[in-house]
Amino acid sequence: MTTDQKQASTDRELTGSEILLRCLIEEKVEFIFGYPGGAVLPIYDSLYYGSIKHILYRHEQGAIHAADGYARATGKPGVVIATSGPGATNLVTGIATAQMDSIPLVCITGNVPQNLIGTDAFQEADITGITMPITKHSYLVQDVRDLPRVVKEAFHIATTGRPGPVLIDIPKDVSNAKAPFSYPETVSIRGYQPTTNPHPLQIEKLQQAIAESKRPLILAGGGVVTSGADQQLIAFAERAQIPVTTTLMGIGGFPGTHPLWLGMPGMHGTVAANRALLECDLLIGIGARFDDRVTMGRIDKFATGAKIVHIDIDPAEIGKNVDTYIPIVGDVKRVLETALKDPPVSQSQAWLEKLKGLKQQYPLTYKQSDNMLKPQWVIQHLYETTGGDAIVTTDVGQHQMWVAQYFRFSRPRSLISSGGLGTMGFGFPAAIGAQLAYPDRTVISVTGDGGFQMTAQELAVVALANIPVKVAIINNQCLGMVRQWQEVFYQRRYSEVDLSGSPDFVKLAEAYGVKGLRARTVDEARQAWREALDHPGPVVIDFQVDPEENVYPMVAPGAGLDEMMLGDEKA
Amino acid sequence: MRHIISILVNNQPRVLARVASLFGRRNFNIESISVGESEEPGLSRIVIVTHGDARTMEQVSKHLHKLIDVIKVQDLSIQQSVARELLLVKVGATASNRAEIQGIIEPFRASVVDVGINSLMIQATGDREKLDALIELLRPYGIKELARTGITALPRSMQIQPKAQMHA
Ligand SMILES: Cc1ncc(C[n+]2csc(CCOP(=O)(O)OP(=O)(O)O)c2C)c(N)n1
After folding, report:
1. Which of chain B's residues have a Cβ under 8 Å away from the Cβ of A316?
2. Cα angle at A160 between A156 and A166, to 5 degrees?
3. Where are the alpha helices (DSSP H) in A266-374?
4. A347 Cβ contact list (under 8 Å, min separation 6)
5. What is the interface pTM, i.e. ipTM, of the complex?
6. A496-508, pLDDT tens digit by residue?
7. What is the C-alpha end-to-end distance of chain B, expressed in Å?
């Protein structure tokens, strides 16, 4: 080889950070959500000339929740980058949030150079160790030549089977090292072969159980949304004549306006949904994991007279919380498609009549007031003015439950909420991610005055990029859901739930250059919301609501679904 | 019931931590754990002894399968298998009772692997009960130090009668 030839061949080599960016382009990544720092300087340098849009958040937690919101809204993986040490540890809550709700994320962290790993070097944290229990899988890249394979595998693992977050930790020397680039076309991971096609025999058993049943019920969860099985679910439920209840994560997976829909089950579920769970003779769990917010952890009181069918892509979910009569492992969409080929019909007429009666007898209600704005009214108003097509993100607390109860979502991926982990501070940044994916849709971040203050700094992002998210703060001047529990279970000993000292949210918005509005009455609320919808940019609306309002129905933890508290209006 | 779980894994950094942390996080107990190379380059075999009913064992196995680096999971206690552990024990010994100790360990096919002025180091392999018995016999001489490896195991080639059926 002449010196010239040698020169040419090293020229064709790329640095690790360039390779990473090329891999992300191969994966058709649109946005990177992130925050720079020492250990990711080479990566940010490569981004400088790149074509991928990077959005600079104000806190890594904001960045990862935004990536998560993008993923939930689109079904595509979200990508987040953070630096070593504090940058990486700031991702932890977001990673756990995504893991609990099976959201595909690829989280890229920088790390100190390998010769410093394990020495407690400046800004070193063992992030693969810290996040091991809250990721689907993780990689510490030790050789730049592994990088393309690792990225390919990471995207594959994050998005297939039961999706989840995958972490790639890249030491700075690996980002700087050079290697020739080629992106693998296929992935083969010996220990990872998710089952997507259901066993035909199990489907037959399901069909037979449906044909025999008189009181069947479908419990649909987030798996329906994840696998894109909403149309199949509607066809299946209609054909077999089975009523449907959707968990918080399943909301939108079945239209909230459909006559077969019973509402949400569980702790804040409807009477019809919970009675159906108690009395059904066949319970078909579809992509739902029988979480304790649904079963109340009282398996002894849950669907006791029912044969339980459990359909899930993750075999480990089956038999984890409830004993299963017919287990069906597979992708929910494929399972329903297979079942639809030979559709059974249940003998459920009397049952459907009964449930319809319960829906009429026990609708969700609240007491209107002349002088105070009711939070439920606000949610209902947002629904009526946007028609169920808006994307709504929530934080965690009372407002989250009111959204689940009063907003009739008509399509999947339109309610974005932290179900499994219940992460306050999630909703507003998640709304930014969703709005970036769908610039033309109405994206509403319904949030509490508590939760909003956990990530309010991301107002800078919506202001700067003119991202038209509408932030509806359901401001009850307290940590509402905690206050409710203290009222009901701790004899009104209100310990540390008063949010006095919160900023004037209108002024806070204005300080960032965002439009701020306030509403204290129904008329003001109507007007402010109209104004917000008409405004082309981001808006924060401070809805000052009745601070004493509670979420009903409610089942106390440890009680069975038969012990529902209905609230003053119905008592 | 006591179970011996054999797990074939990619020999990747942290794979043992992933497996052990899964047991900890899911509240499954570990009685012993041993790891070493397997017959295939790049793969290791982890053998874990644990306790639980059939439902727990099903969960253990399913959750292990979820780990990307786990290739195969077998419950060796529901088939015929050979399970062994290694014991090293240092007992007090004087010139006068050395022969007596030799006599005790001989039926166990244990051997003396180191001799000190006031002690003997004994090596033994076998199943847990056998090693427990040997330790009890040696206890009167004074146990100075003791180390056990935890169980490693393989299924027998000839499965004359599956154990699961024997219990049924
Ligand atoms: C990060 C985090 N910390 C604490 C909690 C516990 N928590 C659940 S609901 C709630 C109150 C939320 O208050 P707010 O955001 O004002 O909403 P509201 O219930 O009033 O609608 C708290 C503190 C949580 N879910 N997440």
Report:
1. 59, 62-63, 65-66
2. 55
3. 271-279, 292-295, 332-340, 349-361
4. A213, A214
5. 0.90
6. 999 999 999 999 9
7. 14
